[in-house]
Design a protein that fits this description.
This protein is mainly β. It has no helices and 9 strands. The strands form 3 sheets. The chain has a 4-stranded antiparallel β-sheet with strand order 6-5-8-9, with no helix packed on it. A 3-stranded antiparallel β-sheet has the order 3-4-7, with no helix packed on it. Strand 8 and strand 9 form a beta hairpin.
C-alpha cells in the first residue's frame, strides 16, 4: 500500500488530505539513447504482393508473424538474414499487425495494410 499526502496548498486538496492506492505510475525522466532505435523497417506499406523487411542485427531465433484484426496468425516466417521478403499473394486485402519476435518474445510490432 502506498500513501501519498497532498500538500496543503494543492487546489484539489483539503488540509492534510491523504490518498491510499495499490497503483504506482512511473513516469520516465530520461530516455535510454538506444530506446528509439528501430529494430526493423517494413516497406512498402500499404503493400500489394510482397512486403520487404529489413531488421537490425538480431541474435537468436527471429520470427515475423502477420496477424489479422481478429488476432489470428495468417502468416509466420523465420528471419534468416537482415533482409526478408514476405509473399502476400495469398493474403486478403485488409489491415494486419506485423510482429517481430526474438526467441519467442515480442520485441516490436507495426500496422500493415495489404491492398
Amino acid at each position: 500500500m502506498i500513501e501519498i499526502e497532498a500538500p496543503a496548498d494543492c487546489s484539489a486538496a483539503k488540509s492534510n488530505t491523504r490518498i491510499q492506492s495499490n497503483t504506482v505510475v512511473l513516469i520516465p525522466t530520461s530516455m535510454d539513447e538506444n530506446a528509439n532505435q528501430q529494430l526493423f523497417r517494413v516497406y512498402p506499406n500499404p503493400a500489394d504482393k510482397r512486403l520487404e523487411i529489413e531488421t537490425a542485427e538480431l541474435k537468436g531465433f527471429i520470427t515475423i508473424s502477420l496477424l489479422n484484426v481478429e488476432g489470428q496468425k495468417v502468416l509466420e516466417q523465420q528471419i534468416l538474414s537482415n533482409k526478408t521478403i514476405l509473399n502476400l499473394e495469398n493474403i486478403t486485402a485488409g489491415v494486419y499487425i506485423l510482429l517481430l519476435k526474438q526467441d519467442g518474445l515480442l520485441i516490436e510490432s507495426e500496422k500493415i495494410v495489404v491492398r
